[in-house]
Amino acid sequence: xxxxxxxxxxxxxxxxxxENIREELVSTPYGKVKVKIGAYKDEEIVFxxxxxxxxxxxxxxxNYHANIWALHELGVExxxxxxxxxxxxxxxxxxxxxxxxxxxxxxKSRHYTFYDGEDSPHDRKFVAHxxxxxxxxxxxxxALIRASKELGFLYHPTGTYACMEGPxxxxxxxIRALRILGADVVGMTQCPEAILARELEMCxxxxxxxxxxxAGISPQKLTHSEVxxxxxxxxxxxxYLLMKAVEYIPRERRCGCKDALxxxxxx
Length: 267
Hints:
Elements: E1 4-8, E2 19-28, E3 31-40, E4 43-49, H1 64-73, E5 78-87, E6 97-99, E7 102-105, H2 138-151, E8 155-156, E9 160-163, H3 172-181, E10 185-187, H4 190-199, E11 203-213, H5 224-247
Parallel strand pairs: 1-4, 1-5, 5-11, 6-8, 7-9, 9-10
Antiparallel strand pairs: 2-3, 3-4, 5-10, 6-11
Helix pairs in contact: 1-4, 2-5
């Protein structure tokens, strides 16, 4: 049973460093999810491309509920993800990695919880209010930081991610507002993905790859092609970073993620 999963964001569609890869279709209360499962140094790992293998699903249409439930159904306890982002911080430059530690949710139309009470499409028909003070697992963050340091990559050990609705890029005014709120980078996919993982008591962390400076900071028009181009250049580094981080993930979970539902319900 795999305990670790990797969710690949924009530009990360293929788990080339895994061996003996097989495909599996997982049924969930939210739909079916196709994943790939392979081995790395005797560790079985699930790989799931967030946008589909050909980037066919925009951020606001991703079935986050099905994706996270499928990983939980497979027995996954730890999730590492990647996110392509724009930078609002001049010290964080295109090509740098950022090990996210905080999150601002400014998305608008998404469904944010598994716990809809009696309307839940599964057997957990209760309401839960999980603690989300620190949205990213400290043990997984530490693994990503250690891996980045050992590999000699340019990285930032902390960063606040602002999640916008998309799929358009932001206005100058929105970026000014996000900077005032304390955001370092901006993207479109961390919510509700990170929230749902916490609700199922799964550890979750994300490494952001800066592809450009955000609107009003970049002197050029923002395009998705520049995101794709930079991610293609960084693709090998991203894969080595994730695999090295896997080596540093403790076998036993000592973080609070595993107890997220304790005290979160009225039951």
